[in-house]
Every structure is written in C-alpha cells, then in structure tokens.
Amino acid sequence: MNLEHIKNEISNCRKCSLWKTRTNTVPGNGNLDADILFIGEAPGRNEDLKGKPFVGKAGKVFDELLESINLSRDDVFIANILKCRPPNNRNPLEGEIKACTSYLNRQIDVIKPKIIVPMGSFASNYILEKYGLNKDKISKIHGTKFEINTLSGKVIIIPIFHPAVVTYNINKIEDMKKDFKEISKYI
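RESULT FIELD:
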C-alpha cells in the first residue's frame, strides 16, 4: 500500500454524500518521508478548488507558523480528517468522519510520522481517541505533548488550534507560535 494508491481510492470514494458536492478531493500532500504529520479538519472552498490542503487564509497562517520554526511544506505532510469539503464549510458530521478516517489511518501507517500534530478540535479528538488518550477541549490541551508507542516506534502527538482560528481571532497567533515552538523541541 502506498500513498498514490490511497489517493486514487479517495478520488473514487462514495462512502458518504460529500462526493456529490465536491470539486476535487483533497487527499493531502507533502513529504512522503516526513517526520511530522499535520492533520486538519476538512477542506475549505479554496482547497476544494485546488485539491490541496491549506491554500486559503488559514494556509497562509500555517505557512508563517512553519517558517517560524524553520520548516516548510517540503518538510512535512499535511492531511485532513475529511478528504472532501463539507457544504458551506460546516463542521464534519460523525458519519462522514467514520467513513473517511480509514484513509487517514492508512496514510499514518504509510508515512510513519514521529510527530502527529492534529489541528483543531475535530482532528485532535479523533487522533487522541484513536490512540486511547484522554481528549479534552482544544483550549485546554493545545501545545500539550502526548507520547504513544506504535509498531513503528514512539510517536509524539501535540494537538494545536486550527490555523483558521487566527483569521477570526488575531490574538490566538501568540498561542499558536508557542505551540509551534513546542513542536520544534521534538524535531
């Protein structure tokens, strides 16, 4: 199993109704050998149009935060919980998450990241639950390091706010910068 195979499956997916309203699937992209996997919630309008994650306003914030710890998109892999845009950028539904996360799980298995950074509450809740960790509100756990042991070795999980939060509340940029500095300690 490789990422290209998973990408092809995603492009033909009909597991939930989101395929009916998508322009493009957004399987994720980046360095296939990345030590860091960032996981967002779902594609937005710009991502749906371009087929790539984090290309809108939140993507600009994300790029700046990566640069603040001397990383670029070439150094990381970026994926989402959902691979298709929910209509009007609404929150993912439970059934959509259940239908779509098998792709994310296989991406994790192929990439074998050393650090997983779920961004926002949906991604954080999913990842923490997947690995049997206690989930809590993102406002309480952002920047907190969790460690798990997997078949491929130790993995660090650091939930953070979703970069879109900065587009709504500029004051969150300082929290995000601190969280990225925390991530940089484990690179």
